[in-house]
UniProtKB/TrEMBL annotation, chains A, B:
PROSITE patterns recorded: RECR (PS01300), TOPRIM (PS50880)
Keyword Transferase among record annotations: no
NCBIfam families in UniProt: recR
Ranges annotated as C4-type zinc finger: 57-72
Protein species of origin: Geotalea uraniireducens
Function: May play a role in DNA repair. It seems to be involved in an RecBC-independent recombinational process of DNA repair. It may act with RecF and RecO.
Matching HAMAP family: RecR
InterPro entries tied to this protein: DNA_Rcmb_RecR (IPR000093), Hlx-hairpin-Hlx_DNA-bd_motif (IPR003583), Rcmb_RecR (IPR023627), Rcmb_RecR_Znf (IPR015967), TOPRIM_dom (IPR006171), TOPRIM_RecR (IPR034137)
Listed name of the protein: Recombination protein RecR
Gene name in the database record: recR
SUPFAM superfamilies per UniProt: Recombination protein RecR
Superkingdom per UniProt: Bacteria
The keyword Zinc is annotated on this UniProt entry: yes
Residues in coiled coil: none
Chain ranges of the Toprim domain: 79-174
Length: 197, 197
């Protein structure tokens, strides 16, 4: 049997905790890092640096080094809040440059089967922000998964009574798609949401 | 524009130095690690641990924590040495359990275009081991790439005059292959190397 040194076995186990990294990829990454110890050390320092500096913004719960984060302090439209599940979803929206309001990161989605209930998400904090006044629209940009849809529905019911407009990202055909390869449910939603040319 | 904190930008840059990790994967890994700082710190410690403990075996130039490595000290057949390019290639051979001899890791392959000449590989060390006597066969298990083949040819010319048998891994059809999808050159080599049933 192949016998790895203890420290290498440990590294392989840690690498395999990363998303999309299995046994083979972990070996490939480990050997790459062993070949360039300076890269391995730089990565290690960088990891420690990030975990010690990066925290959650106390306003939007996105990730930041300064609290509140740059998105919460920048000159932006205070009347709209875009609600997303995770910090990376915030990036996906922000990259479009089509939204100039504020953000709120739920840090997850409702999933009773996995024990994720409203109290584990940043929902109370969102409602508190909305009750502060000034917000006219909440854009629900949770994922289009069962959990994300359920979370959007839950939030809509909670927010509408506050007299705030609640919107959801449009369903439709992704840009550049070949219609024949798009699933029927998406085409159906695209038909329902069709617009005048 | 999306604005990352300095420490996160640094981490993304370090992650992108890993093989097969681009911008998107780096983001995915970084956000995963941000969500579980204990994993990030364990990975960082593990990296530092490995780079400080793991070194090259002074006999076979594989990676090890103790010098000489367990493969060089184990009860094995001293009369055969399997020559590979990298430590991970050694694992590929060792996993088969079909070779019970010793190993020698060249730490690369000849590649004049990339400036890799014989003096940058552990070839002098291999010859010294062979001159020590007792070795009857050298199995060349360098990769079947242009560089690997050139290295095998170079080594064969160097070793044969020492009166040592030099062999190379067989070419042929990989197990489980559909013949129609195997490239012609491989089928040709398999035909040339055909054996009695």
């Amino acid at each position: 049997m192949v016998h790895f040194s203890n420290s290498l076995t440990k590294l392989l186990a840690e690498l395999q905790k990363l998303p999309g990294v299995g046994e083979k990829t972990a070996l490939r990454l480990a050997f790459h890092l062993l070949k360039s110890p300076e890269n391995a050390n730089a990565l290690a320092e960088s990891l420690q640096d990030v975990t010690s500096r990066v925290r959650f913004c106390s306003v939007c719960f996105g990730i930041t080094e300064e609290d509140p984060c740059w998105l919460c302090t920048a000159e932006r439209d205070d009347s709209a809040i875009c609600v997303v599940e995770e910090p990376q979803d915030l990036l996906a929206v922000e990259r479009t440059r089509a939204f100039r309001g504020r953000y709120h990161v739920l840090q997850g989605a409702l999933s009773p089967l996995n024990g994720i209930t409203p109290s584990q998400l940043r929902i109370a904090e969102l409602i508190k922000r909305l009750e502060g006044g000034g917000v006219r629209e909440v854009v629900l940009a949770t994922n289009f998964t069962v959990e994300g849809e359920a979370t959007a529905l839950y939030l809509a019911r909670l927010i509408k009574p506050l007299g705030i407009r609640v919107t959801r990202l449009a369903h439709g055909i992704p840009l550049g798609s070949d219609l024949e390869y798009v699933d029927a449910a998406t085409v159906q939603r695209a038909l329902e949401g069709r617009s005048e040319v």
